[in-house]
Every structure is written in structure tokens, then in C-alpha cells.
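Lab notebook page, bench 4
Experiment: in silico fold of construct C2
Operator: M.H.
Input chain length: 231 residues
Purpose: comparison with the prior construct
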Amino acid sequence: MNLITHGAYLTQLSQFRFINQYLVQEDDGLTLIDTGARGQTASILKAAASLNAPIRRILLTHAHDDHLGSLDALHVALPDAEVLISARDARLMSGDLTTDAGELQKKPRAGRAKTRPTRLLTPGDHVGSLQSIGAPGHTPGQLAFLDTRDGTLIAGDAYQTFREVSTSAELRWRSPLPAIATWDRATALASARALAALRPTRLAVGHGPVVLHPQQAMDAAVGRAERQLQK
């Protein structure tokens, strides 16, 4: 697993050079954002040890297997760490794929985990220095997280940056993930537009490299997705 430090607070962990997890430095230790696919527990613990800080929280952007696959094993290794996810995607993680009134009436994809969250999040909640931002579309309850100290946006799969910054609303044949796993492309586009309006200083995503000064690329990605969905 590759480790790359970005700014003062963010460390990127890359699995297969394509699936990212992040460690965010806080005063009391580390917040782990997403757990990757199965089998990553040892690598994540080793990465935290290299930063000389304990993992205090496991924060999930959304309930897909490549983001929560190692959750159960990590929970065994770190039984005192908080486990946080949106209230909406906690239902998916438990196997409840029913849709709500007002949502797209299409069954979402979801991964399963035995571990139960210790805290359910809604948009606007704070987890240490991170503010939760609603980013539904890829899943019904996806959250992004804005580091209020330096403007880094950890966007889950609302965007991807592999080869080119794009939203999960835009299906690109050269880099089709995560669009092919997106539940509601119209809602995903609205979320991507709202995240771009935050004008983040740095964009960190589930798939692809971290992008510094991403505004122009995010705006262009939203524009392409808008044109694609209008066709």
C-alpha cells in the first residue's frame, strides 16, 4: 500500500493504486476515512503506526464494498474506535435496500458489514475538524467531508480523478468507475455541483490521485455531466 502525505493533515493510502483510504490527523489521533476492500486491515494499521498516532474513528463515506470491505476486521482490531456513517447508508450496510418516498425508486447497490455504527451522521455534523456534506446520488446517503482547517474536500465517489476529474454522474468508457455503480445519476450531478460550489483547496476521492487547486477541473466535470445527461 502506497502512502502519500498532502498538506498538514491528510495521508492517502492507495490499494492497488486505485482504491483510496485516508488518515486525517486530529489532536487526539487519527480519523480513518473508508476502509478499502477486504484484506487491508494490516496495511491500514501499519500506516497509522508510521504516523505515530492511534486510529480513534472509522468514518465511512458510503456503503459500497470497496469502502467498507475491511470494516469488520478493523473493528476487531480497534474495538474502541468509533464507527460513523450516514443514517441513510447505515441502512444499506445492514442489508435494507428499500427506497424512501421522494427518492429514485431503484434498488441501490450496497456492501454488507456485521459491524454496527456507533454514531449516525447527517449533513452538517462535525467529526473533529471535518464537516459532513451531503453528497447523495452514488448511494442514497453518501457523505463528503470538508476539513475546515485547510479546505480539503474528501468526496468519496462523488468525483473520481483517475485519468481526469469527473463526477459519478458521467459515464466515461476509459474510466467507468464509479459511474457504473451510481444509483441516481441526476442526484449525483446535483451533489457534484454543490461540492464544486464549496471551492475546495484540495480534492481527495475514492478512486484516483489527490488534486490540488481542483476548481477548474471540478467545474468542467460538472459541465460535461450536465451535457451527457441532457442527451
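Observations: The chain has a mean pLDDT of 96. Residues 170 and 176 are 8 Å apart (CA to CA).
Next step: discuss at group meeting.
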